[in-house]
Amino acid sequence: MKSGNEGFIKGILKDLSAAGILLVIVFFLSVLLGGTLIFLLLIGEGFALLGSLVFIFIVPVFLVLGYLFNAWLFRTAGSSRNILLAPFKEKGVHPAAYSTRYRNLFLVQRFTTLGIMVGLFFISAVLLGILLLIPDLCCLCFPISIPLLLLSITVPAVGWVMFTYAFDPYEPEPRAFIIIGLTYGMLSTFPSLFLNTFNSTWMEPLGIDTSLASAPVVEEFFKALGFAIILSQVKDETDGIIYGSCFGAGFALLENVLYASSSIMEGDGVFVILLIVFRSFFNIIIHMIGPASIGFMIGFVKGMAKRYNKTNYVIVALMTAPGLAAGYLFGMVVHFIWNFLAGLSGWGSLLIFPYGLMVLFVFIVMVIISFLLGTNRYNRRLDNFRKCTIQEISGQSTNL
């Protein structure tokens, strides 16, 4: 993404255009997900096993392709002749252009886009609620209700990503990669669906709850696997959180489409709206915080590595493995507790609300910490730039 100096209105329009492109992708992937579910219902265990084996085989291939893609991107990103890489080029802010005004402008620009998305969400949710409360009207306006459903589910996911992106003013990520990250998050629902379905065929007869024993392990793994694509783009903690949030929000987005569509089929219009609002506020964060914490650790280790020479870089790089393991474990635990509380009956199920708020608080704190680290790092860069500029001016004066 370009920096805040690209023009206030122009930047907002580009953000909304990216959201529009994503909405089209959501529509096609929702149709694909629906077809997959139909095959799972018709064929059952055989299709689930086949799909699980295919995706397990794809994992090492995906890692190799991810490595080659990052290597190619790293080597050619500096080439101005490469048209294919134009949307992916890093457009950081030159120290000479940095100021508190620039940072504030960037924040206001992103939060303005976020405000527009919140407005779109409420408008689409209210219109959808009116259509769902009147069955005959809903059937008559079916071509309108489907886009409204997808819009009311897509906008919150993009909004949460926009919130994290607002705290990355120094080297803003390309919009193309934000779309790729969200798209990958949606695609990660497919292997998770196959593996969770297959695991249920042998776990449930043993009395094992797949939502606790399978879903946290499988889903957090496939969401985090997206870092294989954009590892070279993660330069600091904020970048890691942004891309991790994209993976988690994309996953939650398509999962929300699945749950909302099932509720519409049952004909409970009020429940559909409550479900969309609840999942848009809590479930997205639950899915985001795991890969976001992994991204934070990747960015933190890469930031440390920049401060050392090549010999110490190897030692620092070894910290990546425990960092990834810690982030993955954290995501699984958060996911496990959420599913456990959601499965409680009676008053115990209400514990899900304070727990969701606590996870949201942790996520926001993590975003703010990464922003402060980035600000401190950029201030040092600005000081070095000023010192070099003063030395150059002094040297020119001496020569004169």
Report on this structure.
This protein has 400 residues and is mainly α. It has one domain. Helix content is 81%, strand content 0%. It has 15 helices and no strands. The chain has helices at residues 8-43, 45-76, 100-133, 135-140, 142-165, 175-187, 189-203, 210-213, 215-224, 227-230, 237-265, 269-305, 310-317, 320-342, 352-399. α12 (269-305) runs antiparallel to α13. The radius of gyration is 23 Å and the shape is globular. The model is unreliable at 80-85 (pLDDT under 50).
Quick tags:
single chain, 400 residues, mainly alpha, 15 helices, 81% helix
Write a brief structural summary.
It is built from 15 helices and no strands. The chain is an all-alpha fold and about 400 residues long.
List the helices and strands and how they pair.
Blueprint: H1 8-43, H2 45-76, H3 100-133, H4 135-140, H5 142-165, H6 175-187, H7 189-203, H8 210-213, H9 215-224, H10 227-230, H11 237-265, H12 269-305, H13 310-317, H14 320-342, H15 352-399
Helix pairs in contact: 1-3, 1-5, 1-6, 1-11, 2-7, 3-5, 3-12, 5-11, 5-12, 6-11, 7-9, 9-14, 11-12, 12-13, 12-14, 12-15, 14-15
